[in-house]
């Protein structure tokens, strides 16, 4: 599949990159950031995005690598490749490492970056298709058209307009670690809790503003919190999560974050005796998601599996408790 | 869409080519350098057939913009054997019947070469993971995994 | 016993080094000089009238050299002479989403693609026929009005043998079920590709095809070009599994462009286009009823099948028959009836896929067999052992079963898997299941009626002693070139390195009707062996002269020692009736490049060749394979499924079922496949492991998803082929079987093992959790639904 024509910039350092993004944003040029390109390149090949400029940040070495923070946590550059991430956080955050290794394939993990994974495009069976195929069903909202094939009642102005599903595997796990992201733009930076990065729409899916770049992910240390992630998919390689369930236990706190079943990660937090919180989480989980027929598994099945996986993750964590 | 100069070292040979931003590494290898051992099975990252080693690590050349590979060392399947001397991985693939149609073979071999470079005595899980990034419709993976294990043994015997 | 020099030992493929070094050239790897690039415009509707096609704007674009539309092709084509219903480019109507409508040849692929966007097609969308229910309705607007029918029934077959009601009356238990199967597709890794070059008057078409001779014949028809102006070549091929055994529109389009423009042509499909072209296994709905008697086995089998053929015929008529006739094994079925209907629908066509026509009915019959055994209180494995066909029998529909060696293999597999200790005794969630299968070793009747032998092989030895085998058979990755080289090298006592196989090139190699129905080893293998035996005679004559000995006296043609056969052809020394353990009866031994008379001194092979070449220049022989004349019977369709030999398979699967999620993990598969003598165990194992992979995929996850007739999962990401993580541990069990008519005793191994994989998994799931699944694939949701239904009861 041929890539469409675009112009290409590959700045050598961060300030230059931010300045360039600011210029493009100000001039109203449609641009896309290219990190590892494993999500962006297929998207461009399928003409999913009209694009003027590709801004590759792959030379910004400053954004690569994992550093320890004084508080014992980690600061991970957005450009850190998933294979490197898995290696470098294995000791401190084995669950992040394991989760990274469940993404896509070894070759993809050698290019794919943490930032790209957190910002991976939402997916839908009507959208992630060749342009020819999108024409068969008439282009939907996400493709610039005037219809949603999954929610035919949706009208422009509806919120959310598009219900393409959120699929990042790492996001739910990092959210339960209370991770923050650093968004930089020319001359300024802001920090955001990762869970606040996302918007509830399949098109306008994040808070990243024009001109902004995700530069770092901050993972605070915690002596007591443990997190486990279970990924539901028919094949144990390649496949995106049909449903991903991250669960954290921290004293009396139970946290749950779900991926693959809504337009954004769904986060649940409870405090109290585990029996009760667990029961509540299992009841709430299926209600808080909105899976659609966009995946190998039916919406009903993915809903049904939420409590199963929550329980299993808790069981794993509880087992780890009593060595 | 101006073409830009890209410098690549492919199998030890330095190349300079003017390419469009829209050109992928796979296209440059196959169409400009005539290195057709790198296969195009899907062109969107799903099959693994287009694997090459980029600065030593296996990547999907159909997802790498050629300009992204500027300055990189690329190793393709054509660069694995030493003259007529097959790499132990290649020899093991031949001997163990790990090859049927051969379309996935370049990728499988390069992934295995990289595995053994970084992990000389891989366990079963490591071998499975190494094989899992490429689709093989012919062999059911069984003989490919056997060949990778055999190659690992051969490599450790003759360092 | 004959001792083999090469046969029976694991031998790497002859092209393996080329494949492992990247030297092997596949179709799109060829660099023809300065080609035009072709892109195809495809229909966005499942069913529509084409009111007009306007290519004027596209034609005016820079770099566009030619455009073709349906009007440029007068004739339709199809692999079967009885259903030549497919146009290269749609004419007045489109019948499926993705059907080729127009094509552009331009200076670059990019320019061709840009031009597609400028073609204006005016469609009038018409109601699409997508389901069985819609397809069965009477209609004034059938997909193929040229058939002059008021419905979309493409083919209906009915056969019955024995007395069905008596059979059911005889049964101790009767079981039945309704089964449903999603369509699955081949998903070979190399996309379709074709390149066309001009060579003087000759049009050289290099294509990723399983059957160059079919493509040759179809091109000649469609292009209205005398056959001698064409040459079709298959270079290395990245998998076929039946999906490259039809002639395809893109081959017609590329060749036509070459004629129209005088230029060389290059065309390669995107992966999505491969899925849209499909030709995979038919979606199927099937009702079956089976009667079983604890002593006599299957007493009655009643089968009604509907298959959804998609928009065109392809191999569909054959598929329609195979859905029934392959049920005549692996057990005797004295009383049976079957009906199969194939419908046209507005979807990409279905055709031949590994295990052609036999896979889905086998799932039903082996599931029912299991149910019946359980009901009758029989151990399903022991019952199968008891009921399996024995060799040297004739089935009620006239199949002549020669060798049948599965019994020993299944018994061995039962031991190795510890069946007795496991079946019915594993902890909840764990299960073991068995299923058997039966398949043809090539079809005794050709698709194109003709007087040619089924296979012909030409053999030459030149001045350097090099041996060249010319065969039309396609090596599609299964290693048939290696098999041919092995067979010839064995007879001539030459090392494999001396043998070069030239195959699948319609100009250079004698006609062969390709790699499908598991015919290559049996038919081309026999032809190669016969050619080599003739060559051996030439060399013996020369060696006798050199050493001053009398030439051997070959036995006169006559009855062979004992092989079982019902064929009427008089056997002769050169024929396949020589048996599986040839005694060449020439008093010479060929081994290690020496030729030695009994009790005499060894002569050097090259010296003998030089002597034989004297006054001749080249040594050349040919060998043919002609299957014995098989009668089958007098009933309609008696030819379907007639084969000179049949393979048998048993598969034992062990599974772990997660009752909360419905996930089935197939942990182990033991497979005993009776393929006669294993000429090359490495190739045999590879075929079996590959068949198991495909069976596993169909059993658990594969299925094409359609929405309004459009394939929704046209990618390797969304069409789920099992990954390395899903492949079970495999234990292959040999069957001590030798087929009297197969080349050195060999028969089919490429397809037969797939079918029983699927029901063996279903039967193991039953053993694990007690539910019978009748939907394939048996996804976690199907498993959970069945578990819930049982709890509800
Ligand atoms: C076959 C296949 C299987 C896959 N399986 C999975 C899977 O199982 N789970 C999963 O989560 N993903 C999967 N992916 C998607 C993708 O590979 C990963 O999510 C990957 O981590 C994306 O990272 P990247 O660096 O390649 O992103 P890119 O493609 O470079 O970028 C992704 C998106 O993020 C934006 N972006 C990237 N970095 C930044 C930044 N620093 N600042 C601002 N914007 C940025 C880009 O503009 C783009 O929109 C799969 C992809 C393929 C092709
Ligand atoms: S959810 Fe609706 S609008 Fe969004 S991509 Fe899918 S079909 Fe299009
Ligand atoms: S061709 Fe690159 S992954 Fe398939
Ligand atoms: S050998 Fe054919 S795809 Fe692997």
Structure description:
The complex is a heterotrimer of chains A (323), B (159) and C (793). Chain A has 323 residues and is α+β, with helices and mostly antiparallel strands. Chain A has helices spanning 14-26, 40-45, 82-88, 94-100, 106-109, 114-118, 131-136, 170-176, 274-288, 299-321; strands at 7-9, 31-34, 53-56, 66-68, 74-77, 180-185, 188-193, 213-219, 226-232, 243-250, 253-259, 266-271. In chain A, the strands form 3 sheets. Chain A has a 5-stranded antiparallel beta sheet with strand order 4-5-8-6-7. In chain A, strands 9-10-11-12 form a 4-stranded antiparallel beta sheet, sandwiched between helices. Chain B has a 5-stranded mixed beta sheet with strand order 2-1-5-3-4, with helices on both faces. Chain C is an alpha+beta fold and 793 residues long. In chain C, the strands form 8 sheets. Chain C has a 7-stranded mixed beta sheet, sandwiched between helices. A 6-stranded mixed beta sheet of chain C has the order 7-15-14-13-8-31, sandwiched between helices. In chain C, strand 16 and strand 17 (400-401) form a beta hairpin. Chain C starts with 15 loop residues before the first helix and ends with a helix. The structure holds flavin-adenine dinucleotide (FAD), iron/sulfur cluster and FE2/S2 (inorganic) cluster (2 copies). Flavin-adenine dinucleotide binds at residues 32-40, 42, 57, 78, 82, 103-104, 108, 111-113, 115-117, 119-121, 167-169, 208, 213-214, 238, 240 of chain A.
Set out the fold topology.
The complex is a heterotrimer of chains A (323), B (159) and C (793).
Chain A: E1 7-9, H1 14-26, E2 31-34, H2 40-45, E3 53-56, E4 66-68, E5 74-77, H3 82-88, H4 94-100, H5 106-109, H6 114-118, H7 131-136, H8 170-176, E6 180-185, E7 188-193, E8 213-219, E9 226-232, E10 243-250, E11 253-259, E12 266-271, H9 274-288, H10 299-321
Parallel strand pairs in A: 1-3, 2-3
Antiparallel strand pairs in A: 4-5, 5-8, 6-7, 6-8, 9-10, 10-11, 11-12
Helix pairs in contact in A: 3-4, 9-10
Chain B: E1 4-10, E2 13-19, H1 25-32, E3 51-54, E4 57-60, E5 72-75, H2 88-95, H3 105-118, H4 124-132, H5 142-157
Parallel strand pairs in B: 1-5
Antiparallel strand pairs in B: 1-2, 3-4, 3-5
Helix pairs in contact in B: 2-5, 3-4, 4-5
Chain C: H1 16-21, E1 36-42, E2 48-54, H2 56-59, E3 64-69, E4 93-94, E5 100-106, H3 109-117, E6 120-125, H4 132-136, E7 153-161, H5 164-170, E8 173-181, E9 193-199, E10 202-207, H6 212-223, E11 230-233, H7 249-261, E12 265-268, H8 271-277, E13 284-293, E14 297-308, H9 316-325, E15 336-343, H10 359-376, H11 380-387, E16 393-394, E17 400-401, H12 406-417, H13 419-422, E18 430-440, E19 455-461, E20 467-471, H14 480-492, E21 499-503, H15 520-547, E22 588-591, E23 594-597, E24 603-604, H16 605-613, E25 619-625, E26 646-657, E27 664-674, H17 681-700, E28 706-707, E29 710-711, E30 729-734, H18 754-769, E31 775-776, H19 780-792
């Amino acid at each position: 599949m041929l890539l469409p024509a675009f112009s290409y910039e590959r700045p050598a350092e961060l300030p230059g990159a931010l300045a360039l993004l600011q210029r493009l944003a100000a001039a109203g040029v449609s641009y896309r950031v290219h990190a590892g390109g494993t999500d962006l390149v297929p998207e461009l090949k399928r003409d999913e995005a009209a694009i003027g400029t590709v801004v590759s940040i792959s030379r910004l070495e400053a954004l690569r690598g994992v550093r320890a923070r004084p508080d014992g946590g980690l600061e991970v550059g957005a450009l850190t490749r998933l294979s490197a991430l898995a290696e470098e956080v294995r000791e401190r955050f084995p669950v992040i490492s394991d989760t990274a290794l469940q993404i896509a394939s070894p070759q993809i993990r050698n290019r794919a970056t943490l930032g790209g994974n957190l910002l991976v495009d939402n997916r839908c069976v009507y959208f992630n298709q060749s342009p020819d195929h999108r024409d068969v069903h008439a282009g939907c909202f996400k493709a610039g058209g005037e219809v949603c094939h999954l929610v035919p009642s949706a009208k422009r102005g509806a919120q959310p307009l598009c219900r393409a599903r959120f699929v990042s595997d790492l996001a739910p796990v990092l959210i339960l670690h209370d991770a923050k992201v650093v968004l930089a733009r020319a001359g300024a930076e802001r920090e955001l809790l990762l869970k606040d990065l996302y918007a509830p729409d399949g098109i306008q899916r994040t808070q990243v503003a024009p001109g902004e770049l995700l530069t770092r992910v901050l993972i605070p240390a915690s002596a007591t919190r443990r997190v486990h992630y279970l990924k539901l998919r028919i094949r144990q390689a390649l496949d995106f999560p049909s449903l991903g369930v991250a669960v954290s236990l921290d004293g009396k706190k139970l946290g749950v974050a779900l991926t693959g079943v809504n337009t954004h990660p769904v986060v649940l937090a409870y405090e109290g005796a585990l029996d009760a919180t667990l029961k509540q989480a299992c009841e709430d989980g299926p209600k808080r998601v909105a899976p659609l027929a966009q995946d190998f598994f039916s919406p009903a099945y993915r809903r049904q599996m939420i409590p199963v996986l929550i329980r299993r993750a808790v069981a794993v964590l509880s087992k780890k408790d009593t060595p | 869409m101006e073409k830009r100069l890209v410098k690549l070292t492919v199998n030890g040979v330095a190349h300079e080519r003017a390419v469009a931003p829209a050109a992928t590494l796979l296209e440059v290898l196959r169409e400009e350098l005539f290195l057709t051992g790198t296969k195009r099975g899907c062109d969107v990252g799903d099959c693994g057939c287009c694997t090459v080693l980029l600065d030593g690590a296996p990547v999907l050349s159909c997802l790498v913009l050629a300009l992204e590979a500027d300055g990189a060392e690329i190793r393709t399947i054509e660069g694995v054997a030493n003259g007529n001397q097959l790499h132990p991985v290649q020899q093991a693939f031949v001997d163990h019947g790990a090859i049927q149609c051969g379309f996935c073979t370049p990728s499988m071999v390069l992934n295995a070469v990289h595995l053994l470079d970084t992990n000389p005595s891989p366990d079963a899980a490591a071998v499975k993971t190494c094989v899992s990034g490429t689709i093989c419709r012919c062999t059911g993976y069984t003989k490919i995994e056997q060949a990778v294990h055999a190659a690992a043994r051969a490599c450790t015997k003759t360092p | 016993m004959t001792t083999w020099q090469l046969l029976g030992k694991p031998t790497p493929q002859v092209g393996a080094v080329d494949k492992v070094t990247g030297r092997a050239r596949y179709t799109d790897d060829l660099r023809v000089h300065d080609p035009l690039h072709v892109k195809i415009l495809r229909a966005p509707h499942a069913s529509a009238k084409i009111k007009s096609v306007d290519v004027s704007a596209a034609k005016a674009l820079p770099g566009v050299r030619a455009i073709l539309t349906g009007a440029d092709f007068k004739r339709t084509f199809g692999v079967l002479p009885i259903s030549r219903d497919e146009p290269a480019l749609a004419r007045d109507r489109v019948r499926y989403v993705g059907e080729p409508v127009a094509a552009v040849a331009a200076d670059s692929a990019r320019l061709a693609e840009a031009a597609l966007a400028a073609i204006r097609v005016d469609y009038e969308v018409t109601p699409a026929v997508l389901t069985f229910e819609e397809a069965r309705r009477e209609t004034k607007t059938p997909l193929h009005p040229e058939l002059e029918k008021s419905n979309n029934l493409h083919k209906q077959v009915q056969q019955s043998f024995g007395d069905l009601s008596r059979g059911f009356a005889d049964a101790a238990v009767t079981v039945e079920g309704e089964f449903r199967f999603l369509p699955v597709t081949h998903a070979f890794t190399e996309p379709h590709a074709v390149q066309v070059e001009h060579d003087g008057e000759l049009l050289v078409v290099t294509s990723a095809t399983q059957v160059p001779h079919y493509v040759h014949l179809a091109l000649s028809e469609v292009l209205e070009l005398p056959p001698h102006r064409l040459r079709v070549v298959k270079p290395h091929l990245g998998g076929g599994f039946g999906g490259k055994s039809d002639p395809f529109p893109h081959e017609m389009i590329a060749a036509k462009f070459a004629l129209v423009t005088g230029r060389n042509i290059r065309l390669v499909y995107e992966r999505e286009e491969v899925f849209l072209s499909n030709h995979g296994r038919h979606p199927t709905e099937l009702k079956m009823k089976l009667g079983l008697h604890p002593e006599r086995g299957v007493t009655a089998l009643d089968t009604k099948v509907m298959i959804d053929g998609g928009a065109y015929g392809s191999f569909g008529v054959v598929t329609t028959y195979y859905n029934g006739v392959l049920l005549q094994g692996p057990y005797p079925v004295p009383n049976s009836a079957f009906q199969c209907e194939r419908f046209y629908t507005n979807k990409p066509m279905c055709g031949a896929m590994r295990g052609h026509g036999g896979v889905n009915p086998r799932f039903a019959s082996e599931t029912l067999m299991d149910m019946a055994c359980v009901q009758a209180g029989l151990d399903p494995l022991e019952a199968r052992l008891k009921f399996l066909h024995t060799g040297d029998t004739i089935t009620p529909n006239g199949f002549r079963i020669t060798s049948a060696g599965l019994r020993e293999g299944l018994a061995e597999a039962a031991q190795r898997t510890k069946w007795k200790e496991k079946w019915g005794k594993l902890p909840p969630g764990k299960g073991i299941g068995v299923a058997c299968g039966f398949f043809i070793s090539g079809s005794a009747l050709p698709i194109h009626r003709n007087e040619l032998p089924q296979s012909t092989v030409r053999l030459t030895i030149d001045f350097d002693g090099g041996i060249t085998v010319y065969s039309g058979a396609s090596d599609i990755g299964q290693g048939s070139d290696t098999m041919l080289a092995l067979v010839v090298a064995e007879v001539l006592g030459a090392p494999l390195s001396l043998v070069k196989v030239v195959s699948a090139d319609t100009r250079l190699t004698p006609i062969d009707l390709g790699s499908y129905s598991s015919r290559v080893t049996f038919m081309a293998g026999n032809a190669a062996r016969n050619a080599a035996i003739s060559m051996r005679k030439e060399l013996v004559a020369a060696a006798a002269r050199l050493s001053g000995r009398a030439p051997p006296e070959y036995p006169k043609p006559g009855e062979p020692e004992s092989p079982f056969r019902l064929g009427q052809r008089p056997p002769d020394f050169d024929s396949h009736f020589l048996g599986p353990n040839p005694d060449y009866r020439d008093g010479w031994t060929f081994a290690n490049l020496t030729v030695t008379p009994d009790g005499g001194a060894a002569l050097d092979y090259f010296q003998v060749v030089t002597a034989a070449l004297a006054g001749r220049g080249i040594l050349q022989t040919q060998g043919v394979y002609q299957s014995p004349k098989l009668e089958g019977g007098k009933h309609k369709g008696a030819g379907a499924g007639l084969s000179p030999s049949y393979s048998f398979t048993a598969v034992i699967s062990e599974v772990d079922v997660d009752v909360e999620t419905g996930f089935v993990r197939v942990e182990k598969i033991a497979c005993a496949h009776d393929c006669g003598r294993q000429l090359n165990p490495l190739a045999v194992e590879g075929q079996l492991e590959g068949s198991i992979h495909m069976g596993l995929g169909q059993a658990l996850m594969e299925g094409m998803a359609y929405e309004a007739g459009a394939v929704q999962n046209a990618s390797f990401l969304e069409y789920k082929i099992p990954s390395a993580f899903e492949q079970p541990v495999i234990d292959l069990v040999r069957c001590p079987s030798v087929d009297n008519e197969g080349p050195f005793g060999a028969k089919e191994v490429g397809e037969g093992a797939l079918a029983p994989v699927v029901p063996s998994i279903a039967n193991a799931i039953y053993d694990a959790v007690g539910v019978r699944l009748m939907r394939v694939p048996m996804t976690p949701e199907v498993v959970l639904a069945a578990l819930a239904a049982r709890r509800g009861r």
